[in-house]
Each structure stands twice: as structure tokens, then as C-alpha cells.
Amino acid sequence: MACRSILRLGGFFVLPALCFLAASTANGQGTDLKPYRLEPKQPTGELLTKMNDLYSGKVRIKGPDIRGNQAILKQFAQYAMYRVTFDSYYNLPESGELKPRTVDQNLDLLVSDLNSRLLIPTPERDLPRMNPEQTGYIIEYGAALDAAVADIFAKNPPAIIRVNAARFLSIAAKSGAPAHGKTLTAMLNNTYFKDKAGKPLPTPPEVLIYAIHGAENFLAAYDVTALNSPLVTRHAFPDAELVVLVKILDEMVLKGPPVAALASVSSVDASGRPTNLTPPPPMGGEAATTAPAAPPATATALLPEQIAVVRYYRRAAIRALAKIRYDVVGGKGVPEVRVGYTLAKVATNDSTLSLSTTPADAAEAVIGLANNALPSVYLNVDVWALALAQGLGNMAAPRLAEDADVSLPWKQTAARVSASFAQLRKNIAVTPRYRGYGKPLTDLLDLAIVDILSPLEKDTQAGVNRPSVERLQLWITGNPPKDAAGSLFNDDAKYKFAPRRPGT
Predict the structure, then answer these.
(1) CB distance 25 to 277 below 8 Å
(2) Cα 209 from chain centroid (whole Å)
(3) Phi-psi domain of 14 (left: phi exceeds 0; alpha: psi -120 through 50; beta: other)
(4) SS3 sequence, 407-469?
(5) Is the CB of residue 28 less than 8 Å from the CB of residue 95?
(6) Over the range 434-466, which residues count as b (16 or more CB within 10 Å of their CB) and which as e?
(7) For the whole model, what pTM was predicted?
(8) How many CA atoms lie within 13 A of 488 on its CB side?
(9) 399-401-402 Cα angle (round to 5)
(10) pLDDT digit string (tens) for 424-463?
(11) Cα angle 38, 73, 129; round to 5
(12) Would you call 344 helix, strand, or coil by DSSP?
């Protein structure tokens, strides 16, 4: 499979979302994957009927038949997950001939199979067809899928299998099953993998990136038990557990994920020979190596390759954090995480961040700010709107100077921001906390669509469809915060922004 690499991490590549690591054992070369293979039992026709009944909620999972139903879910979960351990998906033919894979050797087919049996609760699409029995399906099938992934990792497989197991877990997390939330939290917290003595091991970097993607999918899911209630925006995790997961992501965004030491970085001597190379961390199926001392952790001391790695993981964390539907999570006996402040700092390129904000970062932060479906009583909406406006300017900056800028997939990015604004517009109309700010907020959304997002969604030619920020700047100067302190939250003046000076 031909894929363009994004980043090189200690000897292997982190690939785009729809690409998979490929291994070759042609002509006896590469890692032998057969020892890591797990054999699932293929479901029969009768089981398919029973599974479809469980999926559609026709059959109650709990009750006298719960063990039998759980056994069915377990068999399907293993069939969905175990096949990522088959060496036929990675090995080249014995001849070494490069040619397109057949359907039965294509991992995309497994992705399609996995997606076909997931129930993903969202108010817009699934509310009419969800029933109480499907709640049990989401919980129990999620637990079965999670256990199947644990079986794969328990064999301590090489990176080629680990990365696909992690990706499949990230896809499964779209259901919001609690088991996935617990596993992803452990992976992000470096407590999932353990050595033979039971001591926690750092999560491998190729698993970590998909754990972050999985957290994004998990946080985007809705609590299926609350879809018919006023708490429809609730996430699929109790507050105490949600706070733990969100806090990990929040710290990744503020401080930068601790991945700089994983990058393959080299310094060269006068002759151009590398003097330092950081190898990948040893894991199952791979030979152990002796790594040199970890490079400095501060952003100012990092080499360009390291900064690129940190930014890549950090952007994924921003995107995951942006799926939170509140500016504050926790409280009432549970520790608080003020997500809105972190996203506002990213949007405004705050000087206290470990790394400056890129246009891609700003876009994700803007989407996250717009995702605030239920503003807290502490939120200064005018300051929040100012951060949103400044984030739009930081996102669009590259296209103001150069039409040919390709640092972002501009059409896709603008479309995603537009979709978040469409939902925000609905929230403004029905959310009491937004009352009194309707006109400035709708004015901001209107000008953003016309002047920035619509031009970015179109094919841009020289001097044509170029985004404009003139009216955006006028809106910013014409809507100063009412609170002189300019704090995002009115219960404490410390939640202010200090945007970086240009070029820093």
C-alpha cells in the first residue's frame, strides 16, 4: 500500500488516518507475525440473526439470557478485532510482487465490518431509532470489543499489529461504550501497558496517537441514556471519570505531549555524519536497543524534527478536547477542568502555551469553542466570543498573504468550522446563557461565513475568493469585553489571555 508518511518516530512512521503501517516478510525478510495471530470463530447464519436482533434492540441483552447474549457479542467482537493479527494483511507474496491487495486481504474491509455493527448515539440521527435495549447493546458490545483488543495487546505484538489494534479501538470508541473510555484513559495515562512484574510502561507512540483519536471519538459520542432528556448534551462518561480523561488531554494541549524524545532526530558533524540518533522504544517482537539520553524537553531547546512530532500529537489532543460540549467539566464535588479556557488560549495564541498556535490549531480551537452547547454560569460570553473571533483570524492568516498556501486542507477545514457555526447558531437561539448576546454573536457568525469561510471553501485563484478579515477586525474592536479584567470566567480574574507578539 502506498502511503505518504507524516512523521518518523524512532524508526517507524505515523501515517494519515486512512493509511496503515505495512510490513514485508517477502523472501524471508521482516518480522514473523504468525506467533501473534489470534484465531476467531466465524459467526454462523443463526448467530448472525441473533446478533441483528441484539443490534436492533428486538432482544433484551440483560435478563435470563444475558450470558448467552454476551457470548454472541464476544464472538462477533473477536471476529471484528482478531483479524488485524493475520499476517496475510501485511505480508507481500513470496515473489515480492507489488500489486493491489485482494478484497479479503484489505484492512478497509475489516473497518467496514467493524463500523457496520456499531451503534453511535447522536441526537440528530439516532434519536428516533434508539430504544432501551440498544443501550445495553452499546455497553455490552463495547466491553466485548475492548476485551478483544486487550487479547491482542496481551501477546505483546510488534508495532505493525499494535497500530491497527489501536486504530480499530479508536473506531469502536465512537459508540461511547464506557469500557472504551476506561481503556483510552489508561493508555493516555501510561497505565495500560505493563511489564512482566506488573509495572506500568509508557504507551507506545503508535498506540498513543490512536488513543488520542479514540478519545476524540469517545468524547464526540452522546450518553444514550440521556438522548430523550434535557441532559441530551451529556457525554457518555460519569463526571468523575470524564474529568480524568479531559484533564490528561488538557495538559497535553497546554504543555505539549511528552513525545519529543520519540522522534528520530540527528545532529551532524562537519562531514555530515549523524552524531545522535534516537531509536524506537523496544516492544514485543522487536529487538531491544540502547537509547541515548533523552533530548531536552523544553520547546525552545527542541530540534525541528521534535517540534514537528510534538505539534502533531498536540493537534490531535486539541481536536479531541474540542469535542467537549461544555466550557467547564466537573464541579460539585468533582475536580474542575476549564476546557473553554484552554481552547481560548489556543485560539488566541496565548504566550503561556508551550508552543505557539498554528492555523490548524486555531481552527480546531474555534470548532471547540463553537461546540459549547451549555455555557457555564461563570462564562463571560463576550470574552468567549472575542476568543472565537481572534481564533478565526489566526486560522485564516496564511490565506491572507498567499493564495497558494496549502498548509491546511482549506476546503475541508472551512466546511468543518461552518458546520460548527451552524450548530452554534441553533444553540444561541435556545440557550438562556446566550441571551443578551444574540446580535453580536450572529453578526460574528454572519461575517465569518461571508468573509472567511465561504471563500476558503471555494477554489481560490489569484486575487479571487481571497478571505478578508477587515470586518472581523472591526467586530473585535467594536465588541470589547464588558469586564475590564477581560477574564473568560467571572468568578476569577486570572482567566485572561496574553496573545503572542507576531513572530514569537
Answers:
(1) no
(2) 8
(3) beta
(4) CCCHHHHHHHHHHHHHHHHHHHHHCHHHCCCHHHHHHHHHHHHHHHHHHHHCCCECCECCCCC
(5) no
(6) beebeebbeebbebbbebbbebbbeebeeeeeb
(7) 0.87
(8) 24
(9) 65
(10) 999 999 999 998 899 999 999 999 999 999 999 886 555 5
(11) 135
(12) helix
Which set of grid coordinates corresponds to residue 291?
Answer: 537509547
Q: What is the pLDDT of residues 486-504, one digit of tens each?
A: 899 999 999 998 887 655 4
Question: E-strand spans in 237-385?
Answer: none
How much of the chain is helix, strand and coil, in % rounded to 5? 50, 5, 45
> Which amino acid is it at 23?
A
pLDDT in tens, 312-362: 999 999 999 999 999 999 988 889 999 999 999 999 999 999 899 999 999
Q: For residue 461, what is its C-alpha cell?
A: 485563484
**Other beta carbons within 10 Å of 279:** 16
CA distance 251 to 111: 31
Contacting residues for 99 by C-beta, under 8 A, at least 6 apart:
none
CA–CA dist 421, 428 (Å, integer): 10
CA 23 to chain centre: 25
Interstrand relation of 12-14 and 7-9 (parallel, antiparallel or unpaired): antiparallel
DSSP state of 12: E
Please state whether 97 falls in left (phi above 0), alpha (psi between -120 and 50) or beta: beta
- Report the length, in residues, of the chain: 504
Q: Could you identify the residue written with the cell 489508561?
A: 186
- Please name the residue that has the C-alpha cell 440557550: 431
Lowest mean pLDDT segment, chosen from 57-71, 74-88, 257-271? 257-271
User: Is 300 within 8 Å of 210 (Cβ atoms)?
Assistant: no
Identify whether the C-beta of residue 495 lies closer than 8 Å to the C-beta of residue 489.
yes
| Burial of 429 from C-beta contacts in 10 A (0-12 / 13-18 / 19+) | exposed
Burial 175-207 (b: 16+ CB within 10 A, else e): bbbbbbbbbbbbbbeeebbeeeeeeeeebbbbb
* Residue 230 CB coordination number (10 Å): 8
Integer-rounded Cα Rg, in Å, for the chain is: 24
- pLDDT band at residue 8 using 50, 70 and 90 as cut-offs: very low
